[in-house]
Amino acid sequence: MTPAPISDADRYSRQILFAGIGPAGQQRLAAAHVAVIGCGAMGAASASLLARAGIGTLTLIDRDFVEPSNLQRQILYDEADAQESLPKAEAARRHIARFNSNVQVHAHIADLVPANIAGLLGPAHILLDATDNFETRYLLNDFAVQQGKPWIYAAAIGAYAATMNILPGKLSSRSEAEGSASLPGNPAPYAPTACLACIFPKPPTGNLQTCDTSGILATAVNLAASIQVTEALKFLTGQPHLMRRTLISFELWNPALWDPAGSAALERSEISAGTPRPDCEVCGQRNFTHLAGQDRAHITLCGRDSVEIHEHHRPVDFAAMRARLSAHTDIHDLRANDLILRFRRGPHTFTLFADGRAIVQGTTDITVARSLYARFIGA
């Protein structure tokens, strides 16, 4: 006997009781479309919260696959996902379908790049940053400012968490507005905030901390994701005037990292981000260099002793590729499904995606990674 479907009145009853949402707000959420860029720790937490809140449509974008080390903090995934090396966007889609089948989820196993950003993010009402690199964040900032589309920055490392709302100015021309999604009903007006480039004119340089070098607490990730999603709910229910207009950060473990005197007052810090910087290259001068793809690398280091190769964009026939690779006696653990192909050769583990991208683990030498790609996949 098929169980009766769960009604929205039952599912969202406690959220509707909250005065900030109510029945009208819940209807707005059901009509909303949110894009989450990155389905790692932050993206998994935010996507789960959004789906449980009743967001009607989610677009999930991620280029990576689930590994055992992800399970400590990436709350949507389980051991089976890691054993199968399932792409994170697809794994997230499957798990969301199990606890809220009414949410429409578009899972994209892809890098977010200038060539695909408009197609992937254009329909969304708001964009949530859950990436692990500033190259993608500056690309996201360019696109959001150009399109007048709100986005929310979020980051976590160690026991540190930070988030900031970016509300770009309204579009001034009809040509710019073509294809830009608008909220259902009457969108509430808001004054623009600073954009990412207003606060950080240039990406940080030098040896940056990552979760692979400094570790990360799941609690820090979930704090940032909770704030990020709460701010998104304010916007989607027509209350942008309630959204925070600061870059807010928290150090959850050791306040002495902020203040040598150990003052607990600095466990929480806020920087004003309520006003755009007039001479900002992006929102002031509207110079979108990242969106234009200037100086964008085609092969990048992606942490965990790995190199990502994303200079090739072509469909891969996994069955034919598996048959060809099986002839190599030095290739081990060769396996494939409809989404990825994986194999191990010596110290290197090779993961090939359906769009021709690959992640080579076991090296940070781009020359070695490119050589392995050319040898086993093709130039």
Helix and strand topology:
Blueprint: H1 8-11, H2 13-17, H3 22-30, E1 33-37, H4 41-53, E2 57-62, H5 79-84, H6 88-99, E3 104-109, H7 117-121, E4 126-129, H8 134-147, E5 151-157, E6 160-166, H9 174-177, H10 196-199, H11 211-214, H12 218-236, E7 246-251, E8 268-272, E9 299-301, E10 306-309, H13 318-325, E11 332-336, E12 340-345, E13 348-353, E14 358-361, H14 366-376
Parallel strand pairs: 1-2, 1-4, 2-3, 4-5
Antiparallel strand pairs: 5-6, 6-7, 7-8, 9-10, 10-14, 11-12, 12-13, 13-14
Helix pairs in contact: 4-12
Write a short abstract of this structure:
The chain is α/β, with parallel strands linked by helices and 379 residues long. The protein has helices at 8-11, 13-17, 22-30, 41-53, 79-84, 88-99, 117-121, 134-147, 174-177, 196-199, 211-214, 218-236, 318-325, 366-376, and strands at 33-37, 57-62, 104-109, 126-129, 151-157, 160-166, 246-251, 268-272, 299-301, 306-309, 332-336, 340-345, 348-353, 358-361.
